[in-house]
Description:
With 146 residues, the protein is mainly alpha-helical. The protein has helices at residues 3-10, 13-23, 34-46, 55-67, 71-78, 82-98, 112-130. Helices cover 61% and strands 0% of the residues.
Amino acid sequence: MNMAATIKETFQPAEIAQLVRLISPTPSTGEMSPEEFERLMKELEAQSNRRGYSEKSIEAARLVLVIGASIAEAAAGTNLTRQSVNQLMQRIRRRMESLPQGWVKVTDWFPAEVAQQLEQISDSLKAAHASGKPLDTQSFTISFKD
C-alpha cells in the first residue's frame, strides 16, 4: 500500500490538513509559526461559547497570520469575501489581545482537591494580572488532605 493511502485510512481529513499546515514551509513574512497558530486556534476555540471556526476561516486566518498574506489574498485563496476575512481577522486579533502574553493553557486531569486548589491559584493569578500587580511576588502551595 502506498503512503498516501495509508495516511487516508489512518487519519481524518482535518488531521491531515493540520499536519500539512504544520509541516509546510513558513515564509518570514508571517506573524507566527504554524505551531503558534495551532496553539492560538485551540485556545480561541476553548474559550469560545460560539460554534467553532469553519475550515475556510481557519485557512484564511492561517494565510494571514502564518504566511503573511493580505486580506485580499486570503479571501481569494479561500473563496471568502474580503469583508468576511477582514471581520474574521478583527475578531481574532481582538481575542488575541485579550489573552495574557506569555501564558499557556494547561488542560489535564487531577485529584479533585488538587484541581480545586489549582482553580483558586488560577483565579488569584488572573486577578493579579488584571489589576497590574507583579506575578513574581505570588507564592502558592498545593497540599493533599488526609
